[in-house]
Amino acid sequence: MNADDPTAPALDPQRLADLRRRVADLLPDVLTDLADLARIPSVSAPSFDPAPVAASAERVAELLAGAGANVQVVRAGDGHPAVIGRVDGPPGSPTVLLYAHHDVQPPGSDDDWDSPPFEPTRRGDRFFGRGVADDKAGVMAHVAALRVFEGRPPVNVIVFVEGEEEAGSRSLPALLAEHHDALACDALVIADSGNWDIGTPALTTTLRGNVRVEVTVRTLDHGLHSGMFGGVVPDAITAMCRLLATLHDERGEVAVAGLTARDDTAVDYDEARVRAESGVLEGVDLLGSGSYTSRLWTKPALTVIGIDAPSVDQAANLLTPSCRAKVSMRIAPDQDPQAALAALTEHLQTNAPWGAQVEVGGPDVGSGVTTTTDGPYVAAARAAFADAWQRQPVDMGIGGSIPFIAQFAEAFPQATILVTGVEDPDTRAHGANESLHVPEFERVALAEAVLLERIGELGSNAGTAS
Questions:
Q1: Which of 21, 145, 326, 357 could pair with 306 as two cysteines, CB 3.0-4.6 Å apart?
Q2: CA dist 405 → 121, 172, 417, 459, 462 (Å)
Q3: What is the CATH number of domain 209-261+300-366?
Q4: Per-residue CA distances from 261 to 244, 346, 371 (Å)
Q5: Which residues form the Peptidase M20 dimerisation domain (predicted)?
Q6: For the whole model, what pTM was predicted?
């Protein structure tokens, strides 16, 4: 599919040039506003102060109102605030909902950053700081698209900016139910993914689901001197290590029975690129089998993401009585997350070494997603990407999870879901030195404006929610 494909809406070359020029003119102010928004430490994790998340929502509301939207800040129960904005297009035009989130991940240790995480810093083509990409750049891409049209977009535009995506979107179902009519749309653009590479745009068509659990292993009712009882009585840390080791086979394949997988070979992703983009150390083997895209997008993966045990500095010569770990499992896009949770729980409980007691709790699950690759809105998106990048987009998967997409799909089954984003392979979302590639961001903003223009060219025949 390309900009000249007969199934894509026509776009006058002069109009495209005007949109390109308009985005370029707006970019400096958009970046300034992005920096101001990213200075707000809107971490939505439960252990952090909620006040900055509220401040972030208010700033997003100001930005949307300044771009011509009618805005309201909403929340469900004790959830973090979200923002809904609307700008009406011509009567009878389709309705496009633009999604992003304004909350961010915890920054981790400042020592791991080359510049302060909440003081956005430009170095070359990249903008560094927590949230500058994930996902406040998504917010600003929507703001930029609205500014392009100066309050008169070619379609009805709804902007929904969530405030707790990084904390599991727990109040999202209630928000979707309460504001269902206000959010009804024909196309839904979710700006929380990425592109295939710098200079190569992509539509994300599959995302893995996720299952997280906390595992507690107990072997004693109290700690024991490791010299007095070591060699006879098992300690919980060693038992935990042996239990966790059963989750993979010797090749690194997930060894939990009952999980689904499928092959994906549509895009070439070779070992050299995997190693370069991941930063895996020399001599370290890569896990699993099959194509690398299958391993990353459509097969299960399992990671131990935390262990509670005495620290090395505080450790005593003791047989530790209990140990707790958090296990994160990514599942194939079409895997039932409840079935995957049951399979993981059974594996952990039946593989306890030495009769150790195992408790599995704190489950958190989310569904994977497979989006449509056909239809007029998908054609418009492909053509818009080709216009913005002067290169054809690719369809790609994401190994990560965005469970709320399934919630939107359930709430608005008639809407075409388009998963886009601002990230690139070196964005390092969730990690230290998260960054945004500024020239790519400019193309993202242009593509979104062109997409709205192209959907407007489709007219009311393509939409029903306006």
A1: 326
A2: 31, 11, 8, 26, 22
A3: 3.30.70.360
A4: 21, 19, 17
A5: 207-355
A6: 0.87
